[in-house]
Amino acid sequence: MRNDLIILGDSWHKDSATKQLIEPLLSGRKVLWLEPDTDTAEAYWPQGQAFANLYRLGLKQYHWSRWLGRSQWQQQARQIRQAISDHGLQDPVLWVTRAELEPLLEELSDIKVVYFCNQAPGVGHPLVERAELILAIRPEPVQQCPAHKTQLLCSQPLPLQLRPKDLPANRPLIGFCGRLDDRLDWELINDAARWRPDWNWVLIGPKQTRRLDTLLRLPNVLWLGEKTQQEYGAYLQYWHVTLLPLLECPGIANSYGLTIRESLALGKPVVTRFKSQHGGYQPLLTRVSRGADLAELLPVLSLAPVHPQLGQRQGWLGEPARAHTGSWADQAANIDAWLQRLS
């Protein structure tokens, strides 16, 4: 059963990311959207069968500020609870877009929270602690948020590409694209690939070390040669985990900023070997130093995508029916899966 949603802190008439993400989520769940009780807000409210599950709660005192008294927050909480009862919302989740709404959440302490983070809330902010899932379309606001419950969304969709013919489909995929030289931790890759024969290990890039020949003796390791940046995008869309097994070399991390951004935007977990900071992305990456650790983590990391036809997680997720391009619909499908885990 899908969680119903309550949207706090955004307006439907604004062409916001929240609106773009919520529209695809209306199928199969009820959504209660809090709006100011004004003629303008009502005039923009959508009509039609497609929005039959969307309900508007107009609040007289819509102005939210930390200076509001507790009695005003309690009054709004009572209105929300009454609307939950009136519309029959089941196991609702609060979708919150503004950190100053934390006093209202205190009055709704029994309801789970998703925090759609647009501005940095500050280290240790109660909303960050309270939220069970944190979403953002930029890395800067979530630099200090716990990585285990933070997901970075794509601000601009990537073009859909066909599955490359040389990309195997018999096992889940972990991939690396870059120079195949001695700056990589070949021991980590070799150990992890031996521990995980049920995964295909895909390497893309120019061969610049003989250590690659040794690794290719393993039947589950594939070297697909060099690819253009455009071609690489197709491989990235279809594999499950991005691997950056780079040793601690000065400046090397900066060369992979685009790979990190595109992988996270597509919902692909990124595993790194090095500790260097990559802008605001470091908290969103998974760092390992041994092949055994990576092998143990892979089944957990691969739970991020969901089979789009079955709508459920499988042992290795099955073969994806389509690539994830970062479109609003794709990202909404990921959010739908994350919400179901909160049930």
From TrEMBL:
<protein>
    <recommendedName>
        <fullName>Glycosyltransferase family 1 protein</fullName>
    </recommendedName>
</protein>
<dbReference type="Pfam" id="PF13692">
    <property type="entry name" value="Glyco_trans_1_4"/>
</dbReference>
